[in-house]
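PROTEIN–LIGAND DATA SHEET

This sheet pairs a single protein chain with one bound small molecule, HMH, given as SMILES. Inputs appear in the order they were entered. The predicted three-dimensional arrangement of chain and ligand is reported afterwards as a token string under its own label.
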Amino acid sequence: MDKQQQESRSSSNKKVDLGEWVKKHASLYEAATRHPFIESIRNGTVDISSFRRWLGQDYIFVRAFVPFVASVLVKACNETDDSSDMEVTLGGMAALNDELAWFKKEASKWGVTLSAIVPLSANVRYCSFLKSLMSSEVEYTVVLTAFWAIEAVYQDSFAYCLEEDAETPEELKETCYRWGNDDFGDWCCTLEERANRHLQMASEDVRKKAEAVFLHVLELEVEFWDMSCVGI
Ligand SMILES: Cc1ncc(CO)c(N)n1
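PREDICTION REPORTED AS:
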């Protein structure tokens, strides 16, 4: 192998993984997972009208998330022959079925009328970003990265509200548990492993796109939390 070949081989073998990106962009990751809204749930000072706003808006988001996850599933089936990829995404789809039912139940508990919710602008922006990722032009590695980032932010944020020293109000624990539970944590780890595997094999160009999408998801998550606590 000549030097040039060696260099190109070593650059394609360069260790890239999502954990490295979390470290590299720690302040943005922290802004998305330790947002004042999440801190207010964790310390029990949460404004209930903010929580209700978040609940209604997130229901709209999850409805838009379903076709996005379906598009990831289609790409998994078309672009890889590894059945683990299909299975992890299919597991995510199944969980969304439960999640929509849960939103309806939770909304009635909090007196939120889901049919009357108008999406706020941060939500509209996030949903149109999801739509843009559904295009067949967007590589599987890139959408898998986005899928992981979207789920990981919720997992990390809500698990934080369930830590031993958290003072999360009893009536919000079920919500936190929905995303903060260990099974969902394990599933996110599996998704992360799948995404890492594809990132390792990807071209530099696709890795760059995946990193940009990761950052954009974090920004949109921060805006989504911001939207939930306007006016307090
Ligand atoms: C805004 C937002 N991000 C991530 C998730 C996780 O599913 C969600 N429900 N809502």
